[in-house]
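hey all, quick one before standup. I had two proteins in the batch that finished overnight and I want to keep them in one place so we stop losing track of which output belongs to which input. First protein below, input sequence then structure tokens straight from the run.
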Amino acid sequence: MTAESAVVLPVLVLFATALVYGLLIMAAQIRCVDAARAGARAAARQDAPEAILEVTRAVAPQGAEVTVGREGDQVRVVVVARPPALRVLPVELREEAVAAAEEPLAPAGGTTGAATAGKNEGRAR
């Protein structure tokens, strides 16, 4: 019984350690997904580049690399990170989010909204 315990106990500890590391990797991946999406939303709203990076880095794991790009009417945010507790392992997490760029709002008091409202009222009668 003692010999069996001596063999099984290290295996159980190794298995538990692997489970904890797996959970850390999954948590970091979820943070990368959330960071990429938050950055893509900010970029789609056409926020300032510094604001986009600030929003993305606030959600991303510590030390993550953030890349923001624009391709036509789409913005792309890429977050690359290494899990914080696993710097010694060759694990690199990468997530990317794409969003359609929104058009800036028209200035308040413009005639566009009034003309549209007039057309809608005319049709309702």
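OK second protein, same deal, sequence then tokens:
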Amino acid sequence: MKQSYVYIITNKNNTVLYTGVTSDLVKRMYQHKSKTFKGFAAKYNCEKLVYFEAFDSIEMAIGREKQIKKYKRFKKINLIEKENSGWNDLSDGWLFYFD
């Protein structure tokens, strides 16, 4: 069964939060880091993965994404800091072999 993910990325100063959904988190992070995934995240240099959740279906992930997108900033920060208090890039060390 293929998993789907909801994720939060930020810029190097942790000032902008972007919430997204994908069925391939490694590939999506490559797209964000290489700026091939155009839009809000690229415009604001969001490429640091600070939070993600895995789901058994894309529908469940989309539902969770919609829920998180409605959160106020402080609630998103609490969500991130509960799992990643240092705001580390959770994709550090991932190997990216796409092009």
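Flagging for whoever picks this up: Helices lie at 25-33, 40-43, 58-70, 73-83. The radius of gyration is 13 Å.
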